[in-house]
Write a structure and sequence with these properties.
single chain; 54 residues; two-stranded antiparallel sheet; 2 helices; binds iron/sulfur cluster
Length: 54
């Protein structure tokens, strides 16, 4: 399951756009990853600051 490191996250919303199943929702101060996640890890590779991790 993917987790967000909030010490690194810039809230750029980039990961929201790359998720193929729309599992990522960006709120003001947090990111929610739903059960729809298929663990493809595209968001982990995409995040410019490495804030997405397993
Ligand atoms: S792409 Fe990375 S920095 Fe941008 S909102 Fe997602 S987790 Fe945060
Ligand atoms: S691992 Fe894949 S399916 Fe899961 S949140 Fe990231 S991009 Fe979406």
């Amino acid at each position: 399951m993917v987790r967000v490191d909030y010490d690194k996250c810039l809230y750029c919303a980039g990961c929201v756009g790359v998720c193929p199943v729309d599992a990522i929702t960006l709120y003001e101060t947090r990111i929610e990853i739903s059960d729809e996640c298929i663990n493809c890890q595209i968001c982990i590779k995409f995040c410019p600051v490495g804030a997405m991790e397993e």
